Amino acid sequence: MSKVTLVSPKEKNNFRSTLSLGILFAFGLCIIMFVLHISIGAKPLSYLTVINSIIHFDIRNFDHVIILKVRLPRAIIALTVGASLSVAGAIMQGVTRNPLASPSILGLLTGASFAIVISYGMFGVFTPYYTPWIAALGALLTAILVLTVASLAPGGASPLNLTLSGAAISAFLGAIITIFNLLDSDNFDDLREWLTGSLAGNSLEVFYIIVPWIIIAMVAAIILSRKITILGMGDDVAKGLGVKTTGLKIQLLIIVVMLTASSVALAGPMGFIGLVIPHIARIVVGSDYRWIIPYSALFGAAYLVGVDILARVIIAPQEISTGIITALFGGPLFIYLIKTRAR
Amino acid sequence: MSNTHFTLRLLNESIALKLPKFALIIILIICIMIVFMIVWSLNIGSFNLSFQSVYDTLKGTETDKAANNVVWLFRFPRTLAAILVGIMMALSGAALQNVTRNGLADPSLIGISQGAALAVVASIIVFPEIDINLRPWLALAGSLIVAATIQWLSFDDKASNSLKLILFGIGVSAFLSSITTAMLTYGDIYNASSALAWLAGSINATNWFDVKLLSIAVLILVPLLLILSRLMATLRLGEISAISLGVPIKFVKYALISLAVALAAIATSVVGPLGFVGLVAPHLARLLTRSNVAIHLILTALIGGLLVLVADFAGRALFAPLQIPAGIVTEIIGVPFLIFLLLSQRRKLNK
Amino acid sequence: MKTSLIKTAIAVALTIIVSSAHAVETRIYSDDLDRKVEIPVQAQRIVALHDVLLTVPLIELGVMPVGSIGRLSKDGKPFIRSGMVLTGYDFENSGIDFIGTFDLDIEKVAALKPDLIIATPRYEKTLAQFEALAPTVVVNYNTRTPLEIFEAVADITNTQDKLAVLERRYQSQLDGIRRIIDTKSIVVNAMMPKKGNINIRYSDFTLGKVLRDAGFRFPKAVDDLKPGGRADFSVERLAELDADYVFATYRTDKKHTPQMIVEEFEAVLPNFCDHLTACKNNNLIVIPRELSLSVSYTALGITAYTVLTHISGNPFAAKLEKK
After folding, report:
1. Do C79 and C110 lie in a common domain?
2. Of the candidates C83, C82, C111, which has an alpha carbon nearest to the alpha carbon of residue C99?
């Protein structure tokens, strides 16, 4: 998966400047998507209104409220979730050397859903204020469980062991979710929308609480990115190069869980972003994680905002859950990527 | 292996089977357990029936209509269907494991069940007017597409990589499940909740028609599977000599995969996805005794049947009148087993 | 061998059905799946395969079923949804036996020795099993409105007289609304905040029926959904859903409060009250959903009076200019 290509220093320099330019380009893409997102919606609003709402916001003006209180939070959350899940996926794939590693495959998203379903089924808790934290707790506990099982297995947390323990624990939690849903079809009706991941109806209040964690995790990811590249060459190589692999893996795990749990808290279980985007980033930049991480973040952000625009306009005036579109797009894209890239 | 073999000579020694006595004893024990479970299962339920009246009903001398119904229309077909479905899922798993040389290949783990599930859920939710009797075909089509996709994905220039097969299978099944979830989200709540019930793997609705369908499938597919598996084992002795013998190993391989898929798909179309039976049964069989392919498959089939029978019985009787679908029970049994396999790395033992 | 066993079983079953058929008076009923079923004229032991949609109407029609599907409360106790609040009956005080949740225990049904089973399309595949126990008719909740379900139940149980009485009571309740309120001049709507969207229905069950039957007008966006239709509207199009009076409902079975609905509106659109005429004029009316969701004349009556008191009890608001 991650071979280090040998190139001459000169070529390397050229490549590097191209990549730096590319970052700018990707950033530009994010901004374009962002602007499109807050300009397009169920109610047609002119760009002038958009600009006006930003320059002199009037809380009594319905259009201004739509732009700044409905579309803007949604766009910001889409950016954040897209970036977080992609970086989480990229790190997981790097550490486990497993092209399939991602929050959904390793059971983190099922863990979050499980926590929500149980807390709703048992205590009837389902409010914008508690739900994110319950989901995050579920993702965290599942991550720890999956990792513990995988690393206790002979051969340690190998790609196969991780994927399998992820699949096994997902299946188990899924079975219990099904029991709950079957016993109480009203709960199922209430929760099924949430269980596919949705960007709608989130306020920035939760976002403000969560965003510091995401920033810390992102910065840490970028700082550790060089070591991830080395880790990707295999534990032995990494140890030979003086990297303390166990400590590094624990740090990276914490980063992944922070990013995933935050995303679930913001938008519910949103599948396939963490799986697909890192592959695309790798096509563009190769195997160097110093580039993969920022590219994944930017691509992921632009991708999810774009998908969310589609979710809002495809069957306008109604909306589709964003999570469904990410799955419908992500699945085939993922199959294609794996087929063409995994050798 | 010691010399404790029992040789079965048929037709003037033109067919001779060498059977290890230990394995035969185990097979006998499991058969007794199955018979015991059948009897138990016929006697227990929310409808109180004495042992005597169940016996009379079976003899045809019981005249109470309700008793006849309960035994003949509910308990009996259900019990038989559970055994048949268990046999099919178990053998499907065993065949997949055999072909891919991967001890973790299970129809529910690598997406084959999910393919069938997606096809059927789509028919329940998106096209509710589709005839129920088409379900087996839809399920089969869904499973075959998934099996072909996974084969195509994991196909390498060199050998087909069994590790990759599992990884891709899990990826594909995650994708399929998310589409199924999407349908459950957007479908009408009434249709969605009946699809959900089907998805949980429930044997409660099986009737004699289902039993007939399943028996035909078992009678046709299982002998084929046994023959091909033995052929496969012979070929495994040395692939080159097999090629020089003119036996198309690829043909045997794909035929076996198709059989495994067909078994899983037909079983799934009748009762919904039954997770992990195909994983647990072959491994339990191997843990009990290590023996030749034929014995192993027979043992696997019996264990599968017993497993699903127990799961269905537990699901319907434990919390009656609340019903826990058998698929949920097998999943709850199967997952700890998978984790146990992972931790003990038993799959290394698989050839 | 197996087929011969089946044949024997069927033969035995048929003989019994035929011989017992002479005992009770029967008639042919054509159900929602176009099946012609021979049912008892006056069924005595009915098993209902849906609680809110079938058991509650049966009780209101004065026919106590012997078995019903139910739900499980958090402490694992079965209950008939809406049963207690609308009819005063639940499993423990009615003699109705719990036969399981929607994945029911068929043997439990058999043990109740029913003479009629009222099913829903959910059990289409297993109808043969139920047919073996008793004549089984299907009431299709996908094609019938809640009150049409009520009519079907009355038809099946031969209790149209009772239904006519309930219907007359309801009509006089509607007359009460129309006498006080000029319903044609008032636009109403019922909406639910739902994850960034506003969920609306052409007719929100009982509440929608009362509002439409009383002659209130609805926003065009709601009328455009055909009867039985529902949609999630983006909150951006809130203005199209605005009305003189807006109704919202909260879950009583989950012990929710009206305040929680207000919070959900707030989550969908900050300061939503400023942007919804009805709310600005203090005409957002939050009522328990249990009433609105049921197939019940009791619920219709309570809803009718709720509508009457909320709108006529606020005589100035109705006169406010309409957009």
Report:
1. yes
2. C111
What lies within 8 Å, CB to CB, of B252 at 6+ separation is B228, B231, B232, B235
CB contact under 8 A, C238 and A201: no
Which of C12, C105, C141 has its CB closest to that of B46?
Answer: C105
Residue C266 maps to which CATH number?
3.40.50.1980
Asked if the ipTM is above 0.85, the reply is no
Residues from chain A that touch B168, judged by Cβ atoms under 8 A, are 100, 338
* Chain A, window 123-182: residues with a beta carbon less than 8 angstroms from a chain B beta carbon: 149-150, 152-155, 159-161, 163-169, 171-172, 174-176, 178-179, 181-182
Give the one of B170, B185, B342 whose C-beta lies nearest to A105's C-beta. Answer: B170
**Residue C288's closest CA among C258, C243, C246?**
C258
Instruction: Check residue C101 and give its pLDDT.
Output: 84
Per-residue pLDDT reduced to its tens digit, C284-306 = 999 888 777 778 899 999 999 98
Residues B109/B121, Cβ–Cβ less than 8 Å? no
Q: Answer yes or no: are the C-beta atoms of A63 and A49 closer than 8 Å.
A: yes
Select the residue of A159, A172, A328 nearest B332 (Cβ to Cβ): A172
Disruptive mutation site among B100, B167, B338 for chain A (greatest number of A CBs within 10 Å): B167
Strand C197-201 to C230-234 pairing: antiparallel
To the nearest whole percent, how much of chain A has pLDDT over 70? 85
Fold of A9-341: ABC transporter involved in vitamin B12 uptake, BtuC (1.10.3470)
Mean pLDDT within B74-92: 92
CA A67 to chain centre: 25
The answer on C263 and C123 residing in a single domain is: no
B310, with CB counted inside 10 A (0-12, 13-18, 19+), is buried
Task: Give the tens place of pLDDT for each residue, C219-274.
Answer: 998 888 877 777 878 888 888 888 999 999 887 766 778 888 888 888 788 888 88
Residue pLDDT, tens place only, A164-220: 888 888 888 888 887 877 776 666 666 666 666 677 766 677 788 888 889 999 999
CB contact C129 to B (< 8 Å): yes
Work out how many CB contacts closer than 8 A connect B with C: 98
Confidence of residue C321 (pLDDT cuts 50, 70, 90): very low
Statement: residue C183 has pLDDT above 90: no
Token digits for C22?
């002479």
Mean pLDDT of A231-238: 78
Q: How many CB pairs lie under 8 A apart between chains A and B? A: 139
Token digits for C112?
A: 């109740």
Subunit partners of chain C (3 or more CB pairs within 8 A) = A, B
**Residue for token pair 């016929």:** B42
**What pLDDT band is residue A4 in, cutting at 50, 70 and 90?**
very low
CATH superfamily of B83-349: ABC transporter involved in vitamin B12 uptake, BtuC (1.10.3470.10)
Residue A207's nearest CA partner among A196, A219, A215 is A215
**Do C98 and B321 make contact, defined as CB atoms within 8 angstroms?**
yes
Q: Is C102 in contact with A182 (Cβ distance < 8 A)?
A: yes
CB contact, 8 Å: C274 with chain A?
yes
C6 contact B CB<8A = yes
Compute the nearest-CA separation of B335 from chain A (Å).
6
- Among C138, C158, C178, the domain boundary falls at C158
Residues C93 and C145 both lie in one domain: yes
> Cβ contacts (< 8 Å) between B199 and chain A: which residues?
178
Distance CA B305, CA B309 (A): 6
Is A321 near chain B, with CB under 8 Å? yes
Give C224→chain A minimum CA distance, Å.
13
